[in-house]
Amino acid sequence: MGAPDFKPGLIDRYLVIAGANAIPAVVVINKSDLADASPARELYRKLGIPVFLTRASRGPDEDGVRELGRFLLGKTCVVAGQSGVGKSSLINALFPSLTARTGAVAMAGHGRHTTTSAVAYRLPGGGQLVDSPGVRECAITGLSALAVALQYPEFAACQPLCRFTNCTHLHEPDCAVRAAVAAGTISPSRWESYRSIVTEDLAAT
Ligand SMILES: Nc1nc2c(ncn2[C@@H]2O[C@H](COP(=O)(O)OP(=O)(O)OP(=O)(O)O)[C@@H](O)[C@H]2O)c(=O)[nH]1
Ligand SMILES: [Mg+2]
Ligand SMILES: [Zn+2]
Predict the structure, then answer these.
(1) Pocket mutation for ligand 1, best pick of 10, 53, 89 (most atoms within 8 Å of C-beta)
(2) Which of 3, 17, 24, 32 is buried most deeply by CB count within 10 Å?
(3) DSSP string spanning 31-76?
(4) Residue nearest to atom 2 of ligand 1 (CA)
(5) β-bridge mates for residue 82, sequence order
């Protein structure tokens, strides 16, 4: 596996924040040369979220980079994610006339961030793309457990079958969400990110 590790909990937090603020989001899995990205691609596609697999280091002609470039035209988007995943490299590959600064992945300790502040680039064909500094983690605040659960479409589909209408899907008996996790129809990584947001992020505030 290439550094940094794929972090589904971070992706799910971005999706919750975007969804709760009515901001459309897509998932980009860069460095698809370093690991098999298809399980993650299938997971998010099934949830109705567009997924792009890219190899920014291959440059502007790589299929995923081209596909993402077409999608971005005319839109205003922010590229967000962990440090070292290749956000700036991706911007350079997408639009070679822009020159976002990139750097080697920091190997130890707290890491080094190559991009240190958000920079907005005007796209040649219209729209804007904002490069942002990498994050190590992202905590959700200001939402209720039920509001978080609403941002998990596969949970919302099960919710009517839970015994309690205000089920938090954490400890209640006859919870259809936990039953779906046990049956393998809801991804364990999705339930784990939900559990972590509600019992760790929300509880800390
Ligand atoms: N193997 C591989 N390496 C890549 C790919 N894309 C970028 N890299 C490398 O990953 C490293 C980090 O790239 P950056 O673009 O600086 O990462 P970043 O996400 O902008 O990092 P921060 O600005 O710190 O948040 C660089 O050494 C890139 O050359 C890719 O598709 N495959
Ligand atoms: Mg960067
Ligand atoms: Zn439930």
Answers:
(1) 89
(2) 32
(3) -TTSS--HHHHHHHHHTT--EEE--GGG-TTSHHHHHHHHHHTT-E
(4) 31
(5) 135
Domain ranges within the chain, ordered by starting residue: 8-131, 145-204
In one letter, which amino acid is 132? S
Residues 6 or more apart whose Cβ sits within 8 Å of residue 161: 176
Locate the ligand 1 atom nearest the alpha carbon of residue 2 and give its number: 1
Locate 156 and state its tokens. Answer: 């919302």
The domain defined by 8-131 folds into Rossmann fold (3.40.50)
CB 29 within 8 A of CB 35: no
Per-residue pLDDT of the chain (205 residues; tens, 9 = 90+): 467 899 999 999 999 999 999 999 999 999 999 999 999 999 999 999 999 999 999 999 999 999 999 999 999 999 999 999 999 999 999 998 887 677 776 554 455 677 888 999 998 888 999 999 998 889 999 999 999 999 999 999 999 999 999 999 999 999 999 999 999 999 999 999 999 999 999 998 7
- Residue 181 CB contacts under 8 Å (≥ 6 apart), including other chains: 187, 188, 191
- Ligand 1 in reach of 92 Cβ (< 6 A): no
Q: What is the pTM of this model?
A: 0.93
